[in-house]
Amino acid sequence: MPENYTPNYKKLTTKEFEEKIEKLNKIASKCTLCPRKCQVNRLKGEKGYCRAPGDIVVSSYFAHFGEEVFISGTNGSGTIFFSFCNLKCVFCQNYDISFKKDDYNTITPYQLSKYMIYLEKLGCHNINLVTPTHFIFRILQSIKIASENGLSIPIVYNCGGYESVDVIKILDGVIDIYMPDIKFFFSETSQRYANAPDYFDNIKDVIKTMYQQVGNLKIIDGVAKRGLLIRHLIMPEHLDDTEKILKFISEEISKDVYINLMDQYHPAGQSYRFPEISRTITNKEFERGIKIAKVYGLHNIIY
User: Fold this and answer.
1) What is the percent of the chain where pLDDT is above 90?
2) Residue 214's closest CA among 247, 255, 169?
3) Cα–Cα distance for residue pair 139/132, rounded to 1 Å
4) Residues 119-125: what's their mean pLDDT?
5) Domain boundaries along the sequence of the chain
6) Cα–Cα dist 16/21, whole Å
7) What is the band of 100 on the pLDDT scale with cuts at 50, 70, 90?
8) What percent of the chain has pLDDT over 70?
9) Four-residue CA torsion sign, 12, 15, 16, 21
10) Residues 6+ apart with CB under 8 A from 15
11) How many Å separate Cα 61 from the centre of its chain?
12) In the CATH hierarchy, which fold is given to the domain comprising 8-237+267-279?
């Protein structure tokens, strides 16, 4: 890949952008942006499971130096945290953002595009969209506006994995780096902690679609430009989920895919209600997760 990498969205024509926006607006008008399939009219501000309004709500935006080293680089990742969430894990470490109530201000796609331009001017290596799923129909408009006004750095889609395959297909040619977190394997686990028994049934096809679009991570001068980076948070008492997830990645995605095995789980949100996850993980549990990854031949492991 040449050093003067051109982001995917810069290759889209105005017509192609508009067609994608139209498709997402149609999905949002009877919302099936995620597997919850609430079918509310988001264009008119109707609220579904995520409780998000029809217009964009941003919690914060800044140059983030705490992401993976080839995402943050030397100048930071241009991170935009969106409020609300379609998954709502009980142990969410951003609980105050994801479970936001009614004290918020909305912004327009044009205003969001200004944030993107600002972050690029700061020198950020990418625009990192954190929890974008429920606002993606508006965000895509922002990317189009920002691109027309000079934005020229990669777009990172940083999500919890509970996505619609149809939406991800529409994003083909827009997103440069997909950064999903595969959280759960067993339906009992995802039901207990996220009220989403179909979590893995959905994400296995989502991950395959993402991988088909962007492939393995391409890193130029120490900074990622394109590709798939999978995150997995190792949780106490749930190494069976970890093993099944890593087996799936190895056998059905690629042994070359980059995986961040995260050890930072700590009780947050409502985790106190669930004794088995109301503690941090042990060193032994984390070391076991790394060993499992190596057993399955996964060699691009970050930890």
Assistant:
1) 94
2) 169
3) 8
4) 98
5) 8-237+267-279
6) 9
7) low
8) 98
9) positive
10) none
11) 16
12) TIM Barrel (3.20.20)
Q: State yes or no: pLDDT of 14 exceeds 70.
A: yes
- The amino acid sitting at 31 is C
Q: Please, what is the end-to-end C-alpha distance for the chain in angstroms?
A: 26
Beta bridge partners of 58: 82
Dihedral sign computed on CA atoms, order 131, 118, 142, 127: negative
DSSP string, 230-272: EEEE--TT-HHHHHHHHHHIIIII-TTSEEEEE------TTGG
Model pLDDT, residue 94: 84
Q: Within 10 A of 187 (CB to CB), how many other CB atoms are there?
A: 14
Q: How far apart are CA 137 and CA 179, in angstroms?
A: 19
pLDDT band (50, 70, 90) for residue 2: very low
60: which 2 tokens? 């914060």
Looking at residue 90, what DSSP letter applies? T
Backbone φ/ψ region at 84: left (φ over 0), alpha (ψ -120 to 50), beta: left
Which pTM value belongs to this model? 0.96
Collapsing DSSP to helix, strand or coil, 219 comes out as: strand
C-alpha dihedral over 247, 175, 58, 115, to 10 degrees? Answer: 140
Residues 6+ apart with CB under 8 A from 118: 61
Burial class (CB in 10 A: 0-12, 13-18, 19+), 290: middle
Tokens, residue 8 = 């995917």
Question: Do residues 46 and 40 make contact, with C-beta atoms less than 8 angstroms apart?
Answer: yes
Whether the predicted pLDDT of 131 surpasses 90 = yes
Alpha helices in the chain (DSSP H): 14-29, 69-72, 95-98, 109-121, 136-148, 165-170, 187-194, 199-214, 239-248, 283-295
